[in-house]
Design a protein that fits this description.
The protein is mainly alpha-helical. It is about 55% helix and about 0% strand. It has six helices and no strands.
């Protein structure tokens, strides 16, 4: 695959684990990628090409939000030493009231 470094980030959670506060699949993985970028400056090449694109973007399109807004919240919370509960509270304020969890999760699993 062009641009692939072959590097695997084993610290990223499975894309099929639901986010504890919302139930959305893939969200914990996207949040972990945002945190990785904050701590390391960038993702490995094999991940960077799809960061805030690919499934990250599909999730944000489903929610009607910009992926950069999610990244900003994660980075601000890390900078301020805030916990996951505060991060999730801020994400909740960004997200629409109706998350469409069942629709997203069904679609996500079908996309594989």
């Amino acid at each position: 695959m062009p641009g692939s470094s072959g590097e695997i980030l084993t610290e990223l959670p499975s894309a099929y684990l639901p986010h504890p506060a919302t139930g959305l699949l893939h969200l914990p993985r996207f949040l972990a990628k945002c945190a990785y970028v904050k701590h390391h400056g960038a993702l490995p090449v094999s991940y960077a090409k799809n960061y805030k694109r690919g499934m990250d973007r599909f999730l944000c399109l489903h929610l009607g939000i910009d992926p950069a807004a999610v990244e900003k919240i994660v980075h601000e919370c890390l900078d301020a030493g805030l916990d996951d509960a505060e991060r999730d509270r801020r994400l909740g304020a960004l997200f629409p009231a109706a998350l469409g969890v069942a629709q997203w999760n069904r679609s996500y699993v079908q996309k594989g």
